Amino acid sequence: MTKRTYRVFKNGRFVVSRVPGRYAGIMTQKIFGRLDCRSGMRALKRNRIFFLTWKDAVTAGYRPCKNCRPGPDDHY
Question: pTM for the full model?
């Protein structure tokens, strides 16, 4: 059985990871939020991007979701 992998944006480049990271973004809208955010879950899979950290998402030009309001100190 193959393990699922994710393309995660980390330190300015994409890496392959077995975990999706802490945040998910929508490439078409340049918004990111927590993995359990309802807004992000509605996005098409082909438009999703994953980030390891809050800083990675902001550095890539994404803004925090207004629904789940992710922050740099999120612990979940």
Answer: 0.82
